[in-house]
Amino acid sequence: MRLQLEVLLKVQKQGNAPEDYEDAIACRSGDPECHDNGFPLVVAIADGATESSFSKLWAELLVTEFVHEPFMTPDDMKRSIARCARLWSRIVRKKPLPWYAEEKVKMGAFSTLLGVQFLPPNSDGLARWQAIALGDSCLFQIGPEGPVTQFPITAYEDFGSTPPLVSTDAAYNSRSWNELAYIEGVWTRDDFFLLMTDALAQWATKEHPAPSFWGELLATFPSNDVSSSLRDWIDRQRQSGIIRNDDITLAIVRQR
Amino acid sequence: MADPWGRDTQKRKCDAVADAMNRMLANLVIKCSKSEGVRDYFHVGIVGYGGNVAPALAGARAATELVPISSIANAPLRIEERAQKIPDGAGGIVEQKVKFPIWFDPIANGGTPMCEALRLAHQTCEGWVSEHSSSFPPTVLNITDGEATDGDPFPQADQLRSLATSDGNALLYNAHISSNPANPVEYPDNEEGLADQFGRLLFRMSSTLPSHVVSAGRQEGLTVSDASRGFVFNADMVTLIRFLDIGTRASQLR
């Protein structure tokens, strides 16, 4: 069995420029498209908080750190986050900043983080996966009959504008660690996994799209038209208020 | 305005008003600050009312002109440094130097033509609402040190609150900086316990806090109910700036 990550969509909040997109996604190879990965496949997705500055940089540092040195325990995560925070601080303080940017940097940067590791099948033939998350970026495991697992948020009303976040500020993180979520499971060759940031995850939690919705979408992939037709669909849902206007990232992990 | 402020008699009321305005603008700018600069999530207009009613921002051509928040960010009169006490994350408090930009210096020149100021705010918001009919409605923050000297401001407040976009009615929040040394009151849900008749009038003039503000306030430890009004007495309204929703934010008191 081989797994492959395909990034289906990376789209900025409507009204923003493409460079204002503040989500980040990475996989073990360092190539965000990650086309030819075997096991273990390590994937991370992060959503930099709108209200912090240099949060795109922070989200990118987090996903890069995770895929290169996956942490699945709170202690490992704390060590990795501290390393990322020192790097973030060195980068943002390289040049003089105007007063407001200086004050904002003191507040730190914030981001969600969802990291998933797909392990090679065991001798018993079972393929395992494990994931860690802080915040509302979500993982969906979908089987032929529908969703098998949704992580870490499963209820529509639990999506809000102040999710627990990973910060460059250690004092803030000390209040977030108890919200760190961990899960592990097994999968079969008929399953696939979707990783998505909160606006789309909130929609999927409410609407429970049938597996055929994703199946139809994926049947056309890889085609250059998928991204643009998805974008059109997202635009329509945003305009009618069905999907919240936010940066959106959608990726799939499936067997090839 | 030159009278001492009730909560700190070393400070004049006009100093407290100027501080509240400067702090509010600084928080709004910092809220919109991103790595590339300041994003124009808000357009802002400021009306000063004392001896007369006039645009209070240097460079604004008319009292009714709204300017993008980025142009305010880059044009304070000067930047001071002040000490701020913050939690150290280990249960203690540390003092940190913060940049405190000054856009307004205190002016004590008598008179409180609040009716005229609210009328001008209405005129400004009316134009904006017609051009941005699906945006979040205008938020008007009225900071005063005393009673209106040009009539009953309630009808003007009522008219202002009746402006609406498809996302709801305009919001009017009031802050009363008083000579009365009574304890600060934040977002009360009834008139009981307010220090005087004027406080009660300002309470009635104030919008009920929208539900998203009430839930954000509760989450961050404020004592608010569904009937809480956007009114504070001898306090500032910086918390309300934090709850202006532009996207994912870190909960500060979680």
Characterise the protein shown here.
The complex is a heterodimer of chains A (256) and B (254). Chain A has 7 helices and 12 strands. Chain A is of the alpha+beta class. Chain A has a single domain, classed as Phosphatase 2c, domain 1, CATH 3.60.40. In chain A, β5 (113-118) and β6 (127-134) form a beta hairpin. In chain A, α1 (55-68) crosses α2 (74-92). Chain A is globular and about 55 Å long. Chain B is of the alpha+beta class. Chain B has one domain (4-242): Rossmann fold, CATH 3.40.50. Chain B is 30% helix and 24% strand. Chain B contains 7 helices and 16 strands. In chain B, strands 11-14-16-15 form a 4-stranded mixed β-sheet, sandwiched between helices. In chain B, β1 and β2 (8-12) form a beta hairpin. The N and C termini of chain B lie far apart (38 Å). The chains are: A alpha+beta (256), B alpha+beta (254). The interface between A and B is large, with 41 and 33 residues.
Question: How is the topology of this model organized?
Answer:
The complex is a heterodimer of chains A (256) and B (254).
Chain A: E1 3-11, E2 23-27, E3 41-47, H1 55-68, H2 74-92, H3 99-107, E4 110-111, E5 113-118, E6 127-134, E7 138-143, E8 146-151, E9 166-167, H4 170-176, E10 181-187, E11 192-196, H5 198-207, H6 211-219, H7 224-239, E12 248-255
Antiparallel strand pairs in A: 1-12, 2-3, 3-5, 4-9, 5-6, 6-10, 7-8, 7-11, 11-12
Helix pairs in contact in A: 1-2
Chain B: E1 4-5, E2 8-12, H1 13-32, E3 33-34, E4 37-38, E5 43-44, E6 47-49, E7 53-55, E8 67-68, H2 69-73, E9 78-87, E10 93-102, H3 114-131, E11 139-144, H4 154-162, E12 164-165, E13 168-169, E14 171-176, E15 185-186, H5 197-205, H6 211-219, E16 231-233, H7 238-242
Parallel strand pairs in B: 11-14, 14-16
Antiparallel strand pairs in B: 1-2, 3-4, 5-8, 6-7, 9-10, 12-13, 15-16
